[in-house]
Write a structure and sequence with these properties.
4-stranded antiparallel beta sheet; 12 strands; binds iron/sulfur cluster; binds flavin-adenine dinucleotide
Length: 333
């Protein structure tokens, strides 16, 4: 058994300090719903766990000026069930309530959800040299390319990695231009969510634009007119307790049946939460019809590339997105 040090901290500053002082491989742990799994599989092998589950003030959900702020330690269930979130940002509440199970949501934090790692079969089950995986062991190769690729991404892939970004909540946050607040050895940084995740390119093992020791302290979204007219649509192999095959987060501001502004992101088939800018551009200023929605949705997949078993995701993704656009448009503002 590998020896493991454990430190429980009370504040984010103490967390950063403990990380800097740790010898070997340190990891923050919040709800533990993903990290412990990966440790059991031998994929993650930390030598020091820094427990941030109960940082002071980290479960806050509050209005801050013209933004809504979520402490990174807020539980997924608490955010999903929060009255203001459900009323003003259904897309956020739904992205969380359609993720994992009630038990997991009661335990898991929204910060940990941002940082969860891919469910790629070869990444999770190949420790010990059974399958090559560039994300787990840089430079070893990728067993998914040319392997079982039904669950893999069709957008944002590279010749090194095709793994799907697994979280639902980051997709909804991407549609809403969220900002991630992080604290590190050099102080506080505000990272727009589009800059938080990296494409796999030639370095799929580097997934986040964070420097070692940075801890996520919170996430905020601007208040927008589009928030209330929003939805998160998720298609999966079974209706609960499953990751997305395709998902879409849509928030619309409308003037009658004309779309003024569209905020759109897709998930389940992309290597990082994916802003669908082409779809937004095709919708804005237009009167909405289903024909229009599906044409605009297809534009998001113009550069999609499938492997041998995941080609269905391109049409599934476009239809999921078109349906989400129609659902969001049908909501009252
Ligand atoms: C069976 C199952 C089904 C699931 N289904 C879904 C699903 O459908 N959709 C979905 O979105 N998710 C799903 N999940 C994932 C679940 O949502 C995540 O496990 C959870 O959100 C992680 O939160 P946590 O607090 O437990 O993180 P932890 O397991 O504690 O940490 C996860 C990672 O984040 C890092 N971390 C945590 N907090 C911080 C922080 N504040 N700053 C910096 N680093 C941090 C940790 O070091 C670790 O690397 C599922 C999980 C399971 C086990
Ligand atoms: S797709 Fe990425 S995570 Fe999956 S085996 Fe290939 S390199 Fe590893």
């Amino acid at each position: 058994m590998q020896p493991l040090q454990y430190t429980r901290v009370q504040t984010a500053a103490e967390a950063v300090q403990a990380f800097s002082g740790a010898s070997g491989q340190a990891r923050y742990i919040a709800g533990g719903t993903t990290l412990y799994d990966l440790m059991k599989l031998g994929v993650e092998r930390p030598t020091h766990l820094i427990d941030i589950a109960d940082l002071e003030g980290s479960t806050r959900i509050e209005t801050q000026g013209d933004r809504l702020f979520f402490g990174a330690g807020a539980r997924m269930a608490d955010v999903a069930e929060h009255e203001v979130v459900r009323r003003d940002y259904p897309v956020l509440a739904q992205s969380l309530s359609k993720a994992a199970s009630q038990q997991l949501r009661n335990m898991a934090s929204v910060g940990g959800n941002l940082m969860q790692r891919t469910r790629c079969l070869y990444f999770r089950n190949g420790a010990g040299g059974i399958y090559p995986c560039n994300k787990r062991e840089p430079g070893s190769g990728c067993a998914a390319i040319g392997g079982l690729d039904r669950g893999q991404a069709v957008l944002g892939t590279s010749s090194s990695c095709t793994a799907v970004s697994p979280g639902d909540w980051p997709v909804a946050l991407t549609a809403l231009d969220a900002v991630v607040e992080v604290l590190g050895p050099s102080g506080i940084r505000m990272v727009p969510i589009v800059d938080f995740y990296r494409l796999p390119e030639a370095t799929p093992h580097i997934e986040f634009n964070l420097t070692p020791g940075e801890v996520v302290t919170g996430i905020s979204v601007p208040k927008t007119k589009a928030g209330r007219r929003s939805t998160y649509h998720k298609i999966r192999d079974r209706e609960s307790f499953a990751f997305a095959l395709a998902s879409a987060a849509v928030a619309l501001s409308m003037d009658g049946d004309r779309i003024e502004r569209a905020h759109i992101a897709i998930g389940g088939m992309v290597t990082r939460p994916w802003r669908a800018l082409e779809t937004e551009a095709q919708l804005e200023g237009q009167r909405l019809t289903y024909d229009h929605a599906i044409a605009a949705a297809r534009a998001a997949f113009a550069t999609a590339r499938a492997g041998s078993q995941n080609g269905f995701k391109i049409e599934l993704g476009a239809r999921t997105l078109a349906d989400a656009i129609m659902i969001a448009a049908g909501r009252s503002a």
